[in-house]
Specification:
With 168 residues, this protein is mainly alpha-helical. The chain has 2 domains: 1-44; 60-165, no CATH class. 83% of the residues lie in helices and 0% in strands. It is built from 9 helices and no strands. The chain has helices at 2-23, 25-59, 62-68, 75-87, 92-104, 109-121, 127-134, 136-146, 149-165. Helix 4 runs parallel beside helix 6. The radius of gyration is 19 Å and the shape is globular.
Length: 168
C-alpha cells in the first residue's frame, strides 16, 4: 500500500509540474480545486465501501472462505468468483476493496483473480447501457467472447501465482 501511495504521489507531482509548465500556478490550483470537488463527491461512497469491506472481513468465517473461496476450493471457488464479479455493482470502487477483503479473509489467488477479471470484463450492471450505445449484437458478442477469460485468468493465477508471489 505504501508503494502505491508513493507512486501516485510521484505521479501527482509530475502532473502538477506539467500543469505549471503549461499554464503556470493558476492552472495547478484550478486542477487541484476540481480534484477536490470530485473527491468530495466520491468520499461518501468510499467511506461506505470501506465500512462494507471491514464488515465482510469480520462476517466471513474462515471455514466458509476455506470451503468456497480458498485455493483448495477448485472449480467451485472459480465459479463463485466468476458470478460474483459479474454481479458486483459499481465496478472498481466497490469491487477492488471487496477483493482486498477477500484476500485478507483467506481467499485463494485464483479466486481473487477470477473475481477481478469478471468484475472488469463481465459486469452485467452495464449491459443495458452497452445495448443502448452499440446494440445488442455487439454487446452479446463482447460478452460471449469474454466469458471464458475470468476462469482462465483465475486458473493461470492459481498455477503461477505462488511462484510469482514468492509462495512456493
Amino acid at each position: 500500500m505504501k508503494a502505491a501511495a508513493i507512486v501516485m504521489g510521484v505521479l501527482l507531482l509530475g502532473v502538477m509540474g506539467l500543469a505549471a509548465w503549461k499554464g503556470g500556478w493558476p492552472l495547478v490550483v484550478e486542477g487541484l480545486k476540481r480534484g477536490g470537488k470530485e473527491g468530495m463527491i466520491l468520499l461518501p461512497l468510499l467511506v461506505v465501501v470501506f465500512m462494507l469491506t471491514g464488515l465482510v472481513q469480520v462476517l466471513l468465517p474462515r471455514d466458509l472462505v476455506a470451503h468456497w473461496l480458498s485455493d483448495e476450493s477448485g472449480w467451485k471457488g472459480i465459479g463463485v468468483a466468476w458470478v460474483a464479479g459479474a454481479l458486483t455493482p459499481g465496478g472498481g470502487p466497490i469491487g477492488l476493496p471487496l477483493a482486498a477483503a477477500l484476500v485478507r479473509s483467506g481467499a485463494g489467488l485464483g479466486v481473487v483473480v477470477t473475481y477481478l477479471t469478471s468484475l472488469s470484463m463481465l459486469s452485467f450492471i452495464r449491459v443495458p447501457m452497452e445495448v443502448a450505445i452499440y446494440g445488442g449484437r455487439m454487446t452479446g458478442l463482447r460478452l460471449v467472447a469474454s466469458l471464458a477469460l475470468p476462469p482462465l485468468a483465475g486458473l493461470l493465477a492459481h498455477a503461477f501465482g505462488p511462484l510469482l508471489m514468492g509462495r512456493t
